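Design request, tokens follow.
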């Protein structure tokens, strides 16, 4: 059990027979009336974000979750397969538990979030940035760097990313997996 004073971003709590992670919280002490905590909670099962207000000092159950290091191996009809980096145990994970699964590359290090009491996999956290090679893009014009214009480029996983004009086929680029955006070109 924990109280609202223990709230922090990323804390996983049990609320309404579901597991929620705290996305944002704010302690409010109005001039009149008791203090309270305003929160944004994200459901681990559905991904839905809800707003909730707790009275100050309210007790909540904290779920024990562990972030374990895994490496992505391959995908087949049964799901995505990951290997634990310390025990070499392999697990299969459903596609619905992986956000932005399109950016998984063989050998990519990920974190699998597991409910410690029941040993069930809650979700897979892939890295915020991945490096991929551009497989196809239209050639850019020399010296056309004065404007922030973008063009489409297909990367090695088949996804299309908007990139600046100077990026060519064969270049390696860093991609932000949260919003699927170009970050920078990697110098080789």
């Amino acid at each position: 059990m924990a109280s609202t004073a223990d709230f922090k971003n990323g804390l996983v709590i049990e609320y309404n027979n579901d597991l929620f992670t705290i996305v944002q919280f704010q302690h409010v002490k109005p001039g009149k009336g008791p203090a309270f905590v305003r929160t944004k909670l994200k459901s681990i099962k559905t991904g839905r974000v809800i707003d909730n207000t707790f009275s100050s000092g309210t007790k909540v159950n904290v779920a024990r979750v562990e972030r374990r290091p895994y490496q992505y191996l391959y995908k087949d009809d049964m799901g995505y397969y990951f290997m634990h980096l310390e025990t070499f145990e392999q697990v299969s994970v459903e596609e619905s538990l992986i956000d932005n699964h399109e950016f998984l590359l063989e050998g990519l290090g990920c974190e699998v979030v597991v409910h410690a009491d029941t040993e069930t996999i809650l979700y897979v956290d892939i890295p915020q940035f991945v490096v991929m090679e551009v497989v196809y893009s239209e050639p850019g014009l020399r010296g056309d760097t004065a404007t922030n214009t973008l063009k489409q480029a297909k990367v090695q996983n088949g996804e299309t990313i908007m990139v600046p004009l100077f990026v060519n086929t064969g270049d390696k680029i860093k991609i932000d997996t949260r919003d699927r955006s170009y970050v920078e070109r990697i110098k080789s």
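Comment from the thread starter after seeing the answer: thanks! The mean pLDDT is 89.
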